[in-house]
Automatic annotation (TrEMBL):
Its EC number is 2.1.1.63. InterPro entries: MethylDNA_cys_MeTrfase_AS, MethylDNA_cys_MeTrfase_DNA-bd, MethylDNA_cys_MeTrfase_DNAb, MethylG_MeTrfase_N, MGMT, MGMT_N_sf, WH-like_DNA-bd_sf. It is found in: Cytoplasm. Residues 3-62 form the Methylguanine DNA methyltransferase ribonuclease-like domain. It holds the Pfam family DNA_binding_1. Residues 72-156 form the Methylated-DNA-[protein]-cysteine S-methyltransferase DNA binding domain. SUPFAM superfamilies: Methylated DNA-protein cysteine methyltransferase domain, Methylated DNA-protein cysteine methyltransferase, C-terminal domain. Involved in the cellular defense against the biological effects of O6-methylguanine (O6-MeG) and O4-methylthymine (O4-MeT) in DNA. Repairs the methylated nucleobase in DNA by stoichiometrically transferring the methyl group to a cysteine residue in the enzyme. This is a suicide reaction: the enzyme is irreversibly inactivated. It comes from Schwartzia succinivorans DSM 10502. The lineage of its organism: Bacteria, Bacillati, Bacillota, Negativicutes, Selenomonadales. This is Methylated-DNA--protein-cysteine methyltransferase. Gene3D superfamilies: Methylated DNA-protein cysteine methyltransferase domain, Winged helix-like DNA-binding domain superfamily/Winged helix DNA-binding domain. The active site is at C128.
Amino acid sequence: MTVYAYYESPLGKITMEAEEGALTGLWFTRDSEREMTESDSKIFDETKRWLMDYFAGKSPDFMPELRLQGTEFRNIVWNILRTIPYGETVTYGAVASEAARRMGKTRMSAQAAGGAVGHNPICLIIPCHRVIGSDGSLTGYAEGLWRKEALLRLEQTGCI
């Protein structure tokens, strides 16, 4: 059964989604989104603790249990994102190169990697906001480029 809870962050309300004790979704709540019935769960307590540490400008030293539901390619890309250190960025091209390497291919397009990055179901914890354009531009963030900029500023200076 899918259950939901919410977290009020400095950048807006966040929706958390879980199934069978594992986090399956985390996103900034959209204004048009209907409110769902909240549920209590240990995974939500852990996720809220992770979010509190993160928004306090700290790199959380633990990871809530995640359950990623996607294609093999998307899961490879999402696992690459999980390796990007707090406060650092990588390009879509670098993500594509690493995905190609892990899949035994000679190359992959940055656009293909970008598509998988854009379908990341668990924002912040799987840090898709740390992926930037080859020219250093802050491109392609479903949660809003203003949030991407604020998150990177938080990680680099400790304040939003």
